[in-house]
Amino acid sequence: MAGVITVNLPVFLIILPLVAAFILPTIGRRQRLQENLLLVVGSLGILGAGYLAYLVMDGGISSVYQMGGWPAPWGIELQVDGLAAFFLLVITFVLFPVFLFSRGNLAEEVGGREKTARFYVLILLLGGALAGMALTNDLFNVYVLVEVATISCVGLVSSRNHPLSAEAAFRYLILATFGSALILGGIGFIYIITGHLNMGFAAQELAQVWQYRPHVVWMALIFLLTGFGIKAALFPLHLWLPDAHSIAPTPASALLSGLAVKGYLICLFKFFYRVAGPFLLQELAIDKIMKWAGLLGIVLASLMAIRQDELKRRLAFSTVAQIGYLFLGASLLNTRGLAGTFFYLASHAVIKAALFLSAGTMLAATGKEKVSQLAGIGRKMPVTTAVFTIASLGLVGVPLFSGFVGKWYLLLGALDGGDFLSALVIIGGSVLCAAYLFPVVRLAYFEPAEIEEAEDPGIPQKIALVFLAVLVVLLGVMPGTVLDLAGRAALDLLTP
Amino acid sequence: MTSLILALMSALVGVLLIVLIPGENKKLRNSIVFLSVLLALVFSWRTGLLVFAGKSIGLKVELGRFVWSLRPDPLGVVFGLIASTLWLFTGVYSFGYMDNKEKQGSYYVFFLLALCVTLGVAFAGNLVTLYLFYEFLSFATYPLVIHERSPEAMKSGKKYILYSLSGAGLLLVAIVLTHHLAGNLAFGAGPILEGLSGPGLNWLLLLFVLGFGVKAAVMPLHHWLPSAMVAPTPVSALLHAVAVVYSGAYGIVRVVYSVFGRELAGELVFSKIFLYVIVFTILAGIIVAIRQDHLKRRLAYQTISHLSYILLGAFTLTPWGLAGAVFHMISYSTLKITLFFCAGIISELTGKSSISKMKGIGRGLPGTMVLFATGTLGMIGILPLNTFWGKYYLMKGSVAGGMWPLALVLIISGILNGVCFIPFIIKAFSGEKNQPAGKTGKRGYREYALFIPPLVLTIAAISMGLLPGMVWPAVQAVVDWFF
Hints:
Strand content of chain A: under 5%
Oligomer: heterodimer
Order of helices and strands of chain B: HHEEHHHHHHHHHHHHHHHHH
Number of helices of chain B: 19
Radius of gyration of chain B: 21 Å
Distance between the termini of chain B: 26 Å
Largest sheet of chain A: 2 strands, antiparallel
Number of strands of chain B: 2
Helix content of chain B: over 70%
Shape of chain A: globular
Radius of gyration of chain A: 21 Å
Strand order of the largest sheet of chain A: 1-2
Largest interface: A-B, 29 and 26 residues
């Protein structure tokens, strides 16, 4: 029994949320039961992903899982490596607090208790799609998972009971569909010239044939970069993101900004590193495009974030800037830079979830959406504000908080490649980040109170917020294990 | 090792006690503050004496891939002892100054936090730990700068934190680059970058100097310092004349001697160029100071000028120069803090902060103005005040390093310091008696708390000036450590 579970653990992690998504509507009337089911799914996910990470680091699991026992190229493969284990851990550790947070306080935001089941189904589908993205080793599966994730995301944005939500969701849908089309085109090009959908085989073939069709390969990679760039909000393709992420219900904002954009990023990394390989990226100057888009994103999106007065919009623009860090880190093409990128990805996932959840709590409790109206909230909602502060310190990259470790390795990666400009932009981005987050903290603690009535949220919400804040500090103080896993993920990607 | 940890912890325990004890009990709170600063002082002196006795004490924690370590050496100990000693005086002064102010709880919390963090900067055993405390120092002192909560205070606070964070960012790049080049960040017997050379290191030095130079208020990175004078006077006195700005100056000395080492620093072109920047700061700082009418701002520009004395000593790269820098660090701090304390007394008792309105103030507040005049003489650097010796060794170091024009610069700066404050003192003691508005002639707890710290510090400065041998062992230990 134990052996069967161990062997099938990867696919179990994909199926678990999907099965739960089908069961959930059948108990649509019983809210408490739904919420308990979600918590069970979340806890099982954490246990499973943790055990999988242990197995991967320990070498106790075969790195290829064949669906249905069919070997490639006939069957579909899952790649169970450091990258998959790492991203699965990130997904589960963000999903769990979000499930906990939505317990008992979702009805107001989605417009009624009968609509919560729909929301939960979308979250579970998104979770399943993200888990699939972490594990998949098949080009076409990527496309399917991307579509599932996109539709769930659009659904989540539209589920808020707000006059603008339909417009934001529609705009997101149009752009995301355009992105999907580009991704499909990119996959098509690769399939045409290699004849394979399995990433390993496609990579072998591509290494041979790319010199005969360099333009096709270039086009395919650019299609993929643009397609995934739209979905992952790579600057300047981020236009949909501020609206969508700021209008979505609070738990959905946390998931979209914290996790969903990163799923697309992981897929893109798989295409670029596993299929095309670092050599080809350099040869076709794709890494330059990624680097400059990242640099511009960090600077310009941060500057835009400073100018936003609506708190959730400010956080949404901040996501665009932070995605810039991930693209910049990935373009460095060395192990330390890529390990830093993955660590930063995990750190940002946790931090952004904490920021959106705490900001959403403040907005819900006070009814104020603007930063300037939040003066003195630190005394009324001590727990929420403390979590927001810890997450801010983490995102700015103060030592002993998670962002510092990520930035440290990104800097090391940049300097390993002799890239001073990137190093300076990484640091400049931190200062800009301080410029858009610290004013909120300052207003909350050091200005006379304007808000009369506001209270910390209920116990499940508090636990969820504190859970995320503890993660931010733990990742900063004791990054060892996660760094090892991130290093392993980087090594797995860079060495075929 | 125990005393090292206790030195940092006692301030933190004080913070916890203040936060946890409910209600507004001023006496209890002030005693907690006094006791925890006193304990920090005792334990840092114990640590210091052990280090001077040649014992190696330290604490190292390895978490993840990062090593956090505290390992004081003589230079760090000198800085730590200056900080903790002056913290006690400032604490007493604050009891008087803050007595009738609002939000005292938050003031003392961050006052104690800043002490803990400053000791961390002083005792840090590697660059990452130094960076950790250096960054936290900005956060711990920011609430003190904006204590008044006025729009002007908020604006200055913003400037302060923006300058500090940008500096810290450049510092981080420099530290990561050092890690990349040397693979090691611990301060040890030899410099970190030993054995490396090449013109590229110039840029590393530039990054370090920019990073620490923000807090050391090297021109043109000094703008935050005069604006930060909106803070309550004890904060200006302690943080913006001593602790915060010294952490920058200390960082630069540390970088020159522990990271680069004097041979390597001597080879780099940029260390010669920085000497010009330092000379410019020394002269321009004091010239700008002459034109200020606001007393605290004038003192602030004078601080900018004097901080560069320390850097000048460090960059001469000679034993005498370093001795001068360390001596100046010790002696200047005692007198500058006195000057600020006096400025605080004047503004508290008379409500005046502009020099042009202070005519005859010396006849209303004779004791304070005598102390102020003594401090001024110290800034010029003449016997019997301790700053004379610092300046003397600085000049000796300049000449020993074959840079005699620097000695000339120090003399000119001394004259300018005289031009800056002597006319004010003459005016203060002449003309109509400028009586404090609400003065009753009766002195209470508040007046004593305000007046005793500067008095004791002035006496200490004079005795140090007459018997420089009191301080010399410490200076000797630092010089021996690096040469």
